[in-house]
Amino acid sequence: MDNRPIGVFDSGLGGLTAVKELMRQLPEESIVYFGDTGRVPYGTRSNEIVTKYVFQDIRFLLNFDIKLIIIACGTASSIALEAVQKEFAIPIIGVVHSAAAQAAKISTNKKIGIIGTQGTINSNSYVRKINEIDPSIKTFSKACPLFVPLVENGYLDNEVARLVAKEYLEPLKQESVDTIIMGCTHYPLLRKTIADIMGQQVSLVDPGAETARYVKEFLQEKDMLAEPGNKPEYRYFVSDSVESFSRLGSLFLEKEIIQSVEKIDIEKY
Fold first, then answer.
1. Per-residue model confidence as pLDDT tens digits over 165-204
2. Is 184 a catalytic residue?
3. Which residue has the higher pLDDT, 143 or 259?
4. pLDDT digit string (tens) for 196-248?
């Protein structure tokens, strides 16, 4: 048993979709969350800058005696996961592997669409992972750079979101994909809009949910779960507006953030 908290970080609010799943699947685990809201999005940055940010984010979380870190950001997982796993002794888990494995498992026609930030798509991380699992699967990737600002500003299910989503998703629809990996943790907030455009016959894979499931199995295997009956504590940190995070974060978690949110200077790390 291990009552130390799980550390989770993302470029902004998107990682809260993973936190929501952790709370649901592991209700006794404490969580420390950092959203790098002052530097969002990571998806448009160079690999060098993303890697620098990820090292800073991890160094900040290590102040809290955590037992495991989740990189709840598709871009950061795609670009920097291997580098930080080599540098730090603590277990560090990204969102790519479990989502790719689930997509390969459920696809019946072996045509999988991958949507993500420009950084995630350029990295080809999902494509490589799927090819490792099943080389016969065909993948079709599409960068959707406007999805993150839409979500961060609360445009989830309106005409603007639908118009943008239709523009991005039409090529995948033409390829008859039967599964789509929402390769950015912001995108599950657009699930209804994406499903309406693609049709109910297309399965949508949520990296946050799949990663939470993987983390649960990992902690069970390593005997690192919190003790039964442990009362979890949740702490939230950001690098920009506390008020905006509290308001939109409650939307992501589908419940009010009653804990105080603290602003920190991430550049010190």
1. 999 999 999 999 999 999 988 899 999 999 999 999 999 9
2. yes
3. 143
4. 999 999 999 999 999 999 999 999 999 999 999 999 999 999 999 898 888 88
Q: Which residues pair with 98 in a beta bridge?
A: none
User: Which burial class, exposed, middle or buried, applies to 62 when counting CB atoms under 10 A from its CB (0-12, 13-18, 19+)?
Assistant: middle
Instruction: Out of 40, 114, 184, 189, pick the active-site residue.
Output: 184
Our answer to whether residue 73 is catalytic in this structure is yes
Beginning with the edge strand found earlier in the chain, give each strand of the sheet holding 179-182 in spatial order: 138-143, 111-116, 179-182, 203-205
CB atoms within 10 A of CB 223: 8
Q: Residue 119 — φ and ψ, nearest 5°?
A: -65, -45
Question: What are the sequence ranges of the domains in the chain?
Answer: 6-94+209-268, 96-208
Of 16, 61, 66, 73, which is the active-site residue? Answer: 73
DSSP, collapsed to helix, strand or coil, labels residue 71 as strand
| CATH architecture, domain defined by 6-94+209-268 | 3-Layer(aba) Sandwich (3.40)
Whose CA is closest to 255, among 16, 57, 15, 11?
Answer: 16
Q: Architecture of domain 96-208 in CATH?
A: 3-Layer(aba) Sandwich (3.40)
